[in-house]
Batch of 2 targets.
Target 1
Amino acid sequence: MRITFHGAARQVTGTAHLLEIGSHKILLDCGLFDSNRIDLDSPNRQFSFDPRDLDAVIVSHAHNDHIGRLPCLVRAGYHGPIITTPATGDILSVMLRDSARIQREDLRNANSRNPHAEPIEPLFELVDVELVVDRLERLPYAAPTEILPGVVLTYFDAGHILGSAMIQLDYEEAGRKRRFLFTGDLGRRQMGLLPDPTIVKDIDILVSESTYGNRELEPYDKLIKQLHAIVARATRLQSKIVIPAFSLGRTQRMIYCLQELFAIHKVRPIPIYVDSPLAMRLTDIHRDHPDAYTPAARQMMDKDPMYFGSKYVEFCASWDDSRRLNYLPGPLVIISSSGMCEAGRIRHHLRHIVDDPDNAIVIVSYQAEGTLGRRLAEGVERIQIMDQWHELNAAVYVLDGFSGHADRNDLAWWFEQTGGRIERGFLVHGEPEGLEALAPVLQPHLLNPVEIPDRLATYEV
């Protein structure tokens, strides 16, 4: 086998790993890089391999840094299958259509600002998304399937978001059976809603994520207590809580956690407003897959007529619904996207609540350097929102333990359960400090030194 790392190498975006098993070429994920999509020099606008040579594409989960360039792949001539889990297939179509819509808006604005320049073309169009959806082949967890002659794919639940999977490939090489495993993005343990990541054994070649390889996050029971205190404060002060959250995964988790506070911990309920049309569509998909959740989560949500919904939860579909929230009295919770506060409706809500010390902003996910979310998490004195400066008087709580990514302890636990004696191990999807910190955690389970590949590095394994 040969592995070439075309993305997420010493960074956390653009996942794309090319496997060559005999004459077969298989691409694992095809994600967007964290780069301006309008930029003509963006790595999103070019492939470092020929898509027409691929025999199969296997998708781990439906976050854009893992699926965002699939329409570009089809546009560039790929005609083979795109394999997903059933839930990922459902989510993927919504995410990519939304991405195409955002591109159209961004390009319309960019071209109008420079009317005399050569018009910029989008990365892909809606028709390319439909071609991706048409090529989807959905496989359930734990169902070994021969996807190419001599190559058997098995998906295992990664516990990261709905439908997320580890990718196991079994094949034979020179008369010897071998097993490759790509973790995709691993979830945290004992987080209430989704099951823990599945344990996989007898691995020969491992490619593992390392997003939080240098971090130890708060356990779930402590996070719930902290969220309880924040809700109690808002009730006491009759104030507002604003939670920036990604539409996929984090929004549904925060709805569930608030429902748990009300139903299990007997916290006095307050209204929850989910202000994201994309999150509303994705939550509908979450309702379609009740078997994906832990028995405890199902038992709690089965008591309500609608999963991720109750008389306390309202979804805001229109701009008028969204604006209305700014004039409602507290206590209330607003969950809105984007998760890093760089776009979307969240900025309007922050603008209206940030000056009042009674209000609260709750950061529940990773915030990239340079983003408004990172500045909020760092507690700067003044912030710029939509070209206006504001004093940051609202209380800011950083509960990033709600992240869907395994932390250092979770990853160490998972490595230990594999049984070790892994021939080759590679760490990807992490910043340099996370990669370097996780390498000694993985090393005792390997027969050879841990590899931290650079982008476009190729390895014979």
Target 2
Amino acid sequence: MAEVGSHIERERSNTSAKGPLQRFLRTIGPGFITGASDDDPSGIGSYSQAGAQLGFNIGWSMLFTFPLMAAIQEIAARIGRTTGKGISGNLSRHYPASLLCVVVVLLSVANVINIGADLSAMADALELLIGGPSPLYVIAFAIICICAIVFIDYTRYVKVLKWTTLSLFAYVIAMFAANVAWADAAKGLLVPHIQWSGAFFTTLLAILGTTISPYLFFWQASQEVEEEELKPSAKPLRWAPWQASRAFRRIRADTLVGMAFSNLIGVAIIFTTAATLHKAGVTDIASSTDAAKALEPAAGKFAFIIFSMGIIGTGLLAVPVLAGSAAFAVGEALHWTVGLQRKPKEALAFYVTLAAATALGTGIMFTPIDPIKALYWSAVINGICAVPVLIVMMRMAGRKDIMGEFPVQGWLRAMGWLTTITMAASSVGLIAQWFA
């Protein structure tokens, strides 16, 4: 009991020693970075297409996805913090190897394709801004991302990621430069508007696939494990239940802030493209760079520059997260030593996998594969992969032999299953679109 009391007092003193701003900055972490990384260049392309094609009427989808996204990410974080293992680590210990293999392979393939598409969008955005050879920029961005995640100390790298999230405010600035009709925008945000057309449902499915992606579950769960391992007094909650109350409050605050921030940026992109491209009759946007190019005549040079810079900033945040989540999934499945806080020589296979995922994504640019089509298929694979991962996560989160005293229950469990059902329905709808 004395040891328990000392842990509690130590955590209380650490928290009370800081002011409100410092406490807030300490609270935001894995959830905030995960939410921000969701707005990667591929996500920007999906939101841009939604705003250009459907105008303000699709804005409500961001409010709809917020509670689903926040609930499932909190569940992923709780699994990591409670068990001391990521999603893949728990899968490898409690479920058949065949299921683990399918999930890890699907996740890795989707992540590699997404990395390639994001690097392509970043290079195209830089080419739009300053000219020059796009393939060279792809390689340069890939090297920057690999070197940063491998060679920068983890605690410093987390701070870099947090500051990189500020690049997303470029889209808020672009929104205010776009002369938005705020009354129409508010109506589109607050009043659900459904069009019974293939284009509408395809766009809605794209938004769901963008906001609720498996790599986000894997990343946030693994980062909770990383954060716990860095604190000498912290232990997996199964073996340190006295830490649960404070840990769960922090996870909820972190996740809600992160997902709210992510969806706020999504709203800003939809409003920007609705007020400019949709209004000008430009409704076919294939990528984030297409949106940037179309913005210049519709909203001016300033909006074009801000939008393009945002693509580069979000890519620098998202590519390491995509590569890192794949490395965590593969490493935990094979029982390697994993962790960004470890030196490369201590977790060589983990870092090689991370670099290989980025390199393979880079290689897509030098094949006949169309990056835009690759992006579409990564979204399809993510949507298909999300359903079995969500089902396994929900079952995992409810098992006392895995979660100890802290199985996910009540409204959070209900929201998690609602998210699972929604994603399953969206996958069925996507398949139905193929046959239609």
